[in-house]
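Much of our argument rests on the idea that a fold can be written as discrete symbols. The record that follows shows the chain in one-letter code together with its fold in token form.
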Amino acid sequence: MRDDDLMLAGEFGAASRLSPKALRLYAEQGLLVPASTDPATGYRYYHRDQVARARLIARLRTLNLPLARIAMLLELPAESRQVELRAWLAAQEANLRSRREIVDSLSRGDDDDLGPVRTRQVPEHKFLYREQRLYVESLEDFTVESEDRIRTRLVAVVAAVVARSTLSPSSCPTPATASSMSDSTLPDRITAFATASSASAEPSPSTSTATER
């Protein structure tokens, strides 16, 4: 690595439009780690090739995305990242429409505009979930991390099912297709979700579980 390819943290921050505080935070979180650190002075140096990644992080932060979700997006190819962002945007727009309907209802003075309550029978499911005590401000990061861990677990379950199957080699799915099978071919319609409870009292030791029910 040539010295002229390295930039001090201040110069790098100016080029990427990130504050020193943000650079320290992203380094601690593993999102943007300095290329090297001078052991004598503690100065942090970044490579010029890291500017593009830093600018991408800065733009994603303007969407108020949690760091855990940004970390996941950074590891995706550009096309897959766009798919994830479009899905996130659609969910945000649906949430905004729901809030607008509530505000409109309140503006009309409606006391109860929830509509009729309907019930339906749902077949028995198996659930894979992760549970942990945490504060409400940590909920979004926890949800993103849990989704990633549960997806990984489901892919492993699918691989195990395929390994035990009696299908011929020509009809067995390949590992590359295992991820796409997680929603459609798992036995008993395994459904994944994450649950969390917020604690307003003093923090207690965090515990997490991933269990099938």
